[in-house]
Specification:
By secondary structure, the chain is of the alpha+beta class. It has two domains: 9-108 and 268-275; 118-261, Aminopeptidase, CATH 3.40.630.30. Helices cover 32% and strands 29% of the residues. It has eight helices and eleven strands. It has helices at residues 9-16, 58-69, 94-100, 124-127, 138-154, 162-177, 223-238, 253-261, and strands at residues 23-26, 30-34, 46-49, 77-85, 103-113, 130-134, 181-188, 191-200, 206-214, 243-248, 264-275. A hairpin with a 3-residue loop joins β1 and β2 (30-34). The two termini are 32 Å apart.
Length: 282
């Protein structure tokens, strides 16, 4: 699916790296995502606007929500997202969030290009002990899922369930089996310590990282840096990919890792999240 040029790299890569069960419909002003199999999938049932949301446009947003989601059962959250270029200053959309009675979620979209990306493992000794492998077997898939579930156990405040993590991981593997990308494991001394996915657009020129996770037991040792860096290096050297996209919370540990690796901040994705009974739907 190709998107109009009004959408940024974050929105573009969200679309081509989406779960197979998630349907994307492009209208004049929105991308409408629906995941019939999981009404509790927050970013599987939402609207993406092709232009910044303003106080003046909120009534129209409400009407669009009613048109696309009012008859959908089990939708827990209304989520509206848009993307703007990053000019070095984080956007202030607090007034819009307050007017919408919504929580605010801002993420940083970063980009690395084949032409200027370089990565080196920091020590020769460590280089001999770490290995990047593509997930091809059931046992490897189980190892990657265990990392995701351990991450959830370490962060129960997120409100995500183990059932959802298992469903989402199964969706990622289905996407890989459909030829849309691959799942990867980083091994340290033969043990799986971190994992992520990398999915591609239709012509293979752009890639999007998904779910970069280090097992809680192995955090603080640079494995996320090695996983993302080695995978980028591998992709630029072994495939036709020209650009790699990665998304994280601004100023988070992950965001600092990606910046240090050479991923440049290009845009911000802004999402309003409100309960279905609140003012986004009127």
């Amino acid at each position: 699916m190709s998107l109009p040029k009004e959408y940024g790299l974050g929105s573009l890569s969200d679309c081509f790296a989406r779960c197979p069960d998630t349907n994307a419909e492009v209208t004049d002003q929105f991308i409408v995502y629906k995941t019939k199999s999981r009404s509790d999938y927050w970013f599987g049932n939402y609207l993406v606007s092709n232009s910044p949301v303003t106080l003046a446009s909120l009534p129209h947003i409400r009407s669009q929500w009613l048109e696309h989601f009012a008859q959908e059962k089990g939708i827990l959250w209304q989520i509206l997202e848009w993307e703007i270029p990053f000019d070095g200053v984080m956007p202030d959309v607090s007034k819009i969030a307050a007017a919408s009675n919504a929580e605010l979620d801002v993420t940083m979209v970063r980009l690395a290009k084949r032409s200027d990306f370089q990565f080196h493992v920091s020590s020769a000794a460590l280089e001999s002990e770490v290995e990047l492998i593509q997930v091809n077997t059931e046992d490897q898939a189980k190892s990657a899922l265990k990392i995701a579930l351990a991450d959830l156990e370490a962060s129960p405040e997120t409100g995500v369930t183990a059932d959802f993590i298992e469903w989402q991981f199964d969706q990622r593997l289905k996407a890989a089996n459909l030829g849309q990308g691959n799942w990867w494991l980083l091994l340290y001394q033969g043990l799986p310590v971190a994992s992520c996915g990398l999915f591609f657009d239709q012509d293979g020129s752009k890639g999007r990282y998904r779910d970069v996770i280090t097992h809680p037991k192995w955090r603080g040792r640079g494995f996320a840096t090695k996983l993302c860096g080695m995978l980028a290096q591998h992709s630029f050297e072994q495939s036709q990919v020209q650009e790699l996209i990665i998304v994280s919370e601004p100023d988070s540990t992950a965001d600092k890792i990606y910046s240090k690796l050479g991923f440049k901040a290009v845009s911000c994705q802004i999402a309003l999240k409100a309960e279905t009974s609140s003012s986004l739907l009127g």
